[in-house]
Design brief:
18% helix, 12-stranded antiparallel sheet, 51% strand, alpha+beta
Length: 295
């Protein structure tokens, strides 16, 4: 039972401004526009029991998501979000089949996303239909769609791509803040206070640095259909990111993000408690295109 729980946890982890003057960073979309967001990420995970590694893996994921602008108003932008391509590979033979099934379920997922001028997601529609459709079948992934592919994950993907801009004009050195709660699969959530700062002009556009002050929040319910329950946890997440924004086009150009999580989790599996240590290192790069990138 403990081995199954550990396996489940491993899966779950599976116009240039003149500086000194203020500039209004804003999205510039018109109806019919379509952009393509390519993200490549690497996740290294080690789960240890009594200082002995019991699960170790390196996972790599590439996804291509399109956003088609459906409506532009003074206070909102409505777009269609579609997971065009998703691919993953892992060096852990116990996880490879499971990861492939999860990625297959995500392909073609389509949602309607509404954002405000600053990029904050105000409405996310279509998940219920997606979950109902993907839940068909008797495999483990189908039975646990809300945990493996939660609505929060898709919503946060859209929000992270668009919610980086301030709601007022800024100049070099200015900062602005946002609060966010990030899903951490069945392992809980990460509550974060994000501080954004306009660092200045780089090669491809304005560079926005983000510093995250994060706090781990354990889940209230048991994970993976009751396979295990987190009794307590003291995970320490550290994350940082840099975005490049083109103010003339009103588009995001790219971003890079790194994250490290360390700490113990006490889980109850089959009525027995065990304390495991989590070591997670992830990195991701995101790039935005006006046309579908060639493969």
């Amino acid at each position: 039972m403990l081995r199954q729980a550990l396996l489940g946890i491993a899966v779950l982890l599976a116009a240039t401004p003149v500086y000194g003057q203020e500039v209004k960073l804003q999205w510039k979309f018109k109806e019919g526009d379509k952009i393509w967001v390519e993200e490549m990420s690497t996740l290294k995970t080690t789960v240890s029991l009594q200082n002995n590694p019991v699960l170790k893996s390196e996972d790599k994921t590439t996804s291509l998501t399109s956003y088609t602008i459906k409506k532009v108003a003074a206070d909102s932008i409505v777009m269609e979000m579609k997971k065009e391509e998703v691919a993953a590979r892992t060096d852990n033979p116990l996880l490879s089949g499971m990861m492939e099934k999860i990625m297959d379920k995500a392909k073609g997922a389509t949602f309607t996303v509404t954002i405000n001028p600053a990029g904050k997601v105000t409405k996310f529609e279509g998940y219920e239909a997606f979950a109902k459709d993907r839940a068909k079948g008797d495999d483990e992934v189908a039975k646990n769609i809300p945990e493996f592919l939660p609505e929060e994950g898709f919503r946060m993907e859209a929000e992270e791509a668009f919610s980086i801009l301030p709601d007022k004009a800024v100049k070099k050195g200015d900062t602005w803040t946002r609060s966010a709660v990030y899903p951490f699969s069945s392992l809980g959530k990460l509550k974060s206070e994000n501080t954004y700062s306009l660092n200045g002009q780089g090669k491809d556009g304005d560079e926005i640095e983000v510093k995250f002050k994060m706090e781990y929040m354990p889940p209230k319910d048991a994970g993976l259909g009751g396979l295990f329950k987190i009794v307590r946890g003291d995970l320490k997440p550290v994350q940082k990111a840099t975005y490049v924004f083109d103010p003339e086009k009103g588009r995001l150009v790219s971003s890079t993000t790194t994250m490290q999580v360390r700490g113990p989790l006490t889980i109850n599996s089959g009525g027995a408690e065990s304390t495991i240590d989590i070591a997670l290192d992830s990195s991701s790069t995101l790039r935005v295109y006006d046309k579908k990138p060639a493969r």
